[in-house]
Amino acid sequence: MKILLSGATGFIGQHLLQTLLKKGYEIYALVKQVDNRLDSRVNQLTIKSLTQLEEQLDVFINLAGENIASQPWTKKRKQTLFESRVVLTNNIQQALKHSPKTVISMSAVGYYGVARHDVFYENTPPKSGFAHDLCAAWEESANAFSNNNTRVVIFRLGVVLGMGGALGKMRLPFLCGLGGPIAGGKQWFSWIHIDDVVRAIIAAIDDQSYKGAFNLVAPQLIEQKRFAQSYAASLKRPTFFPTPRWMLNLILGEMASLLTEGAKVVPQRLEKQGFEFQYKNIDHALIDIERCH
Predict the structure, then answer these.
(1) pTM higher than 0.90 for the full model?
(2) Which of 10, 136, 184, 266 is least surrounded by Cβ atoms within 10 Å, i.e. has the fewest?
(3) Phi-psi region of 259 (alpha: psi -120 to 50; beta: other; left: phi over 0)
(4) Which of 163, 147, 145, 148 is nearest to 61 (CA)?
C-alpha cells in the first residue's frame, strides 16, 4: 500500500509513522526539504517532486499545519495558519497526477466555534469565529478530493494527549503547582489519547465504510477543571492557582478563546461506527502517559 503523509515530523505524525512502518506500508513523506529525522525507509518528496508519482496513491494522510495555539492570532499569524492548511492541501491536490483512493485529513473541534452550553454532534450547526472559519476552509479543501471519486475522511480532533504536544507545554506549569483551573474551569475540555488517534486513522485506512466527518474525541465529557485536577494528580502536584480569564485575554487576545471557552463535543459517528476507544477515562489516559515519561 502506497501512503503519502504530510506533517510526518509533527506530534501526531511521529506516532503514526511508527505504526505505518511496522505494517510494512510504502511511505512517502511530504517535506519542505530533506529531513534527517525521518526513518531511512521513508521516501521524501517536496510539492514539486509529487509529480514523480506515476501510480495512484492508496491513501493521503493530511496532518500538516502550523500549531494554532503557539502564537497570538495576529493578522499575519492567521494567514500563516490558513496557508499551512488550506493552501497546502490545495497545492497537493493540484500536484498529484492521480487523485488518491482515500484521503484522511485532520480538522479540530474548533470547527464548532466558541460555545459553552451547546452539545455538538457531527451534524450540529457550528458557531462563527476564526477557529470555525479556518477548520471549515481546511475541510472544504480536503473534501475537494471527493470530486475525483476519492473517499474522504475528516477527523475533528480534540486536545491530543501524549508525550509531547499540548501536554508537553503544560507539564512545567503543572509541576510547579501553577496548573489550576482556567477562567473558572467550567468550559468543556475535549480530549483524545494519541494512541486512539493513531488507531482511528488506521481504522479509516482499513475500513471503507469510514467516510465524511468524525469527532475524534474521547467519549468521556469533562470540564477543564476536571482535566486540571487529573493532570496534577498524575504528576502528584496540587492545583492551587487558577488562571483568570482577563490575564489570558491580555496575553493571548482572540486566541484565549481556545482555553477559556470549550464546546461539548460528542464522538457520535465513531461510536456508531463501532470504534473502540482504548482510553475512555482521563485519569487512566494521563497515568498511562506519565508512566511513559
Answers:
(1) yes
(2) 184
(3) alpha
(4) 145
pLDDT bucket at 137, cuts 50 / 70 / 90: very high
Residues 116/186, Cβ–Cβ less than 8 Å: yes
Given pLDDT bands bounded at 50, 70 and 90, which one contains residue 177?
Answer: confident
What's 103's DSSP letter?
Answer: E
**Domain boundaries along the sequence of the chain:** 2-291
Instruction: Name, in order, each residue with C-beta under 8 angstroms of 113's C-beta and a sequence gap of 6 or more.
Output: 126, 127, 128, 129, 131, 132, 263
Q: What single DSSP character describes residue 84?
A: I
Number of helices followed by number of strands (H, E) in the chain: 11, 13
Bridge partner residues of 157 (DSSP): 108, 216
What fold characterizes domain 2-291?
Rossmann fold (3.40.50)
Alpha carbons 34 and 220: distance in angstroms, whole number: 41
Distance CA(68)–CA(64), nearest Å, equals 12
